[in-house]
Fold this protein.
Amino acid sequence: MPDQQKDATVHLSLDEVRDLAHAILTREGLGADHIGPVAETIVAGERDACASHGVYRLTNCIRTLRSGKVNPQAHPVVRPSASAVVRIDADGGFAQRAFDLGLPLLIEKARTHGIGLLAINHCVHFAALWPEVEAVVAHGLVALACTPSHAWVAPAGGTAPLFGTNPIAFGWPRPEGDPFIFDFATSAVARGEIELHRRTGKAIPEGWTIDADGNPTTDPEAGLSGALLTFGGHKGSALSAMVELIAGPLIGDMTSAESLAHDDGALASPYGGELVIAIDPEGILGDAAAGHVARAEALFTAIRAQGARLPSERRFAARRHTPQTGVDIPRALYEELAAFA
Ligand code: NDP
Ligand code: PYC
C-alpha cells in the first residue's frame, strides 16, 4: 500500500474492531445483552469489506442512543401463534437481539409448515440484511428479508423523498461451498455509501441522487439533502413500494415516511418493522428436494461460465482473509470513534 494511503487509514485486527465496538456501546449505555449482537454485526460488516455497514455504523448507533430513539434496555417479547407466523415485539431496541430470539422459532415454523414468517416490530435497524438471510440459509432453508428505512428516496417519476432505501436480501442454500446471497438497497445505492463519499469529499456517480430542486447531482451533500433515486427506474421503485407495504402496514409497522416523522430531526437510525421469510424446500418437494436444489447448481455454473460473478462472492472472498490480515479504517473515522471509546 502506498505511504499516503497508509497515513489515511488505521489498520485494525477484527478483535480490535470488536473491542472498539464493545467499548463505545458500553460507554453509550447499551444493555449488556444487546452489546454482543450489535457489535458482531459491525465486526461482520468489516470482515466482509462492507464499509457502509461496518464501524461507520457506530456513528449512527451513538446518535440513535444519545437521542433516545432506541431503547437500550429493550426486552424483546415473542407473541405466541400456532400458525407459520412468528411475531416479536423488539420493544424499541436494536433489531439484532430480537432476530436472535426469533431465529430458532422461524426455523421451527418453516420445518413444520414448509414456510415460516418472522415479523419483528418496533425495532431500530441500522445494518445490512445478509446476516439475517445467511443465518436462515445455514439451516438449509431459502430466505428472503426486507425492511423499510427513512423517507430518503424519490419514487420513479417524482422528485421528493418518500420511500426508504428499503433493502431486499435473498439467500439460497447450496450443497457445497458458500450459499447464493444477494442483499441490496432498492435505491441506486445505500445512503450509507453516499455518506461515506461526503465524509471523504468524493463526488458520487450520476444517477444516484437529485438535489432539492429535482436536478441530477454528483455532489453528495446536495444529493443527501435532495433525494436518492431508485435503482432500475420504475422497477426499483415498485420493489421499494413493495418493501414499504410488506414490512410496514402488512406487519402493523411504520412506513419510511412514518419512521422519518418519528425521528423528528434526531438523525437516528430507522425505526419500524422487519420481515424475514424462511422456506423449507422439503416442505414443498419432500424427498425430491435435495435433487432439485442440486439441479440449481447448473444455473450458478452457467452464470460463472460467462465470466460473471455471483452476488456475495466478493464478500465471501474478503471473509476468508480479513480474520488473518485485519482491515483498514479511514483514519478520520477511527479517530472520531476512538474519542467516543
Ligand atoms: P450494492 O449496490 O453494492 O449491491 C450489493 C449486492 O450486489 C451484494 O449482494 C453484492 O455482492 C452484489 N453485487 C455487487 N456487484 C456485483 C456484481 N458485479 N456482480 C454480482 N453481484 C454484485 O449495495 P447497496 O449499496 O445497495 O446496499 C449495501 C448494503 O446496505 C446492503 O447490505 C443493505 O442491506 C444495506 N442497507 C440497509 C438498509 C437498512 O435499512 N437496514 C437500507 C439500505 C441498505 P458483494 O457483496 O459480493 O459485492
Ligand atoms: O445505508 O441506507 C442506508 C441504511 C439505512 C439504514 C441502514 N442503512
Remarks:
- Residues 52-53, 125, 127-130, 147, 149, 165, 167, 169, 182-185, 189-190, 193, 270, 309, 311-315 surround NDP (ligand 1) (CB under 6 Å).
- The radius of gyration is 20 Å.
- The first strand starts at residue 9 and ends at 12.
- The first helix runs from residue 3 to 8.
